[in-house]
Protein: PBP domain-containing protein
Amino acid sequence: AAGATFPEELYMDAMFAYQFVDPTVSMSYLPTGSGGGKNRIMLGDKMKDDGFGPPFNIDFAGSDSLLKPDQYAQYPDLQMYPSVAGAVVPIYNIPELEARSLDLILTPATVAMIFSGQIKYWNDSAIYNDNVAGGNQVGAEVLKKLQAAITVFVRNEDSGTTEIWKKSLAGASTFFSKQIGTSSKPVWNSTARYEYRDENNGVASGVLATDYSIGYSVLGVA
Ligand SMILES: *[C@@H]1O[C@H](CO)[C@@H](O)[C@H](O)[C@H]1NC(C)=O
Ligand SMILES: *[C@@H]1O[C@H](CO)[C@@H](O)[C@H](O)[C@H]1NC(C)=O
Structure:
């Protein structure tokens, strides 16, 4: 099997547990991202190597994004089943807040403005206002003094996590919806200062290593 990194931990645990049920069954799950899983299950070894290598012929794929109606029509023996529920969450790194154990409060509309390049600095008044409104006055004053540019970490590969994240922000902001859209691909049509990383772990470690950055990942990795 191959596909989304979102359910990877769960599938790894399930495969481990299944060895106690039937040790003759050998299983593996290659975390390629949802796009890689869908390409493998649809195209098999007719697909172009996406950099993750074999296996190309797989028995099941994990995907956070749905098959499109034309894909269902083209591969009528393919079915999707819900297997796991989870959350995609924002992750950020602001040393001045961390040092004083202060929260960062952002409305979805403000997060959308950050990810679409409308807000470029942590001292932005929208960020200040969210924190005041959320009762985080001390944090708001700390943020207001930060002249730091926001580095925005996003996924480098075709990713269902990206699609979930974009759909959520598109629901909070018409500008985001029109300008960025909801594609699972690493397409971010704006002047935000983006950094691209592979997989949830790549985005999370990028944020961890970069002061004044923000990104998104599945809750388990956050
Ligand atoms: C925020 O910081 C930037 C970068 O130093 C600066 O250009 C801008 O004027 C600041 N904005 C406010 C509202 O202080
Ligand atoms: C990027 O946004 C601009 C302004 O909305 C638009 O004209 C352009 O077509 C967009 N480009 C892509 C690749 O979506």
Notes: The chain is about 40% helix and 15% strand. Residues 2-74 form one domain. Residues 160-172 form the longest helix (13 residues).
